Amino acid sequence: MQKPLVCFQLNLLWKADDFDDIISFVFFTILIIATVKMGGNMVRPDEVKVKAQRLGEQNYKFRAFLKNRADRDELDAKFLKLHNEMFAVFDCCKCTNCCKAFSIILDNGEIKKIAASLGMIENDFITEYLANADLDDEKPYKIKEMPCSFLLSDGRCRIQDCKPDVCAEFPFTNQPDRLLRLYSIIGHAEICPVVFEMLERLKGMYGFRNWVRK
Ligand code: SF4
Ligand code: SF4
């Protein structure tokens, strides 16, 4: 827990003179501990790339470790739990790294939906916002600007209600078969502070650090 918060809590306890004050003290203590535990001391979005790259070799060793030891379903369950717990308290608007790092490819259905939500004719929307993705006919275009043109200055998404599936699903850590996707998860740890933290917690859960020390 950070020093100013400890001072604040001690002050609250010192001034407590009735039952309500004690309840407030207990409530704020639990809240602060939960916040810190769930993400208050997480790596900063602007530092995550450098820190993940520093851990690159260790992360690839951890991948090999999991490949040899982890049960597929159990690993999925651990990822899912961490994903739900951490994204429930992490404010993506304060990060937005993924909106700056990827060129988002859209399918035809998404193009129609987004154009309609912006009140634009499809062709005008394509001309203004998209570029050729050089892929198949199902996914012909990508958002041409990086950072994404729909990223607002306060970190929100301008097309939140119809944003592309890939945006809604990133970083995919709540999906099955994570054991088969560890390479991309390690790559995503360079972009996403939550993924970075998940890997660090999983190293603890699986006893990886003790195993490395042997
Ligand atoms: S569409 Fe929205 S969520 Fe997706 S990259 Fe752009 S700003 Fe981010
Ligand atoms: S999903 Fe990850 S990278 Fe994207 S905004 Fe949220 S924390 Fe940042």
Give me some keywords for this one:
about 5% strand; binds iron/sulfur cluster; about 210 residues; three-stranded antiparallel β-sheet
Verbal overview:
With 214 residues, this protein is mostly helical. The protein has twelve helices and three strands, in the order ααααααβααββαααα. It has a three-stranded antiparallel beta sheet. A hairpin with an 8-residue loop joins strand 2 and strand 3 (141-143). Helix 7 crosses helix 8 (122-129). The chain is globular and about 60 Å long. Mean pLDDT is 87; it is low at 1-8 and 30-38. Bound molecules: iron/sulfur cluster (SF4) (2 copies). One iron/sulfur cluster binds at residues 45, 90, 92, 95-98, 170-171, 191-194.
Lay out the secondary structure.
Layout: H1 3-15, H2 19-40, H3 48-54, H4 56-69, H5 72-89, H6 97-101, E1 105-106, H7 108-117, H8 122-129, E2 130-132, E3 141-143, H9 165-169, H10 182-188, H11 193-205, H12 208-213
Antiparallel strand pairs: 1-3, 2-3
Helix pairs in contact: 1-2, 5-11, 7-8
This protein binds iron/sulfur cluster (2 copies).
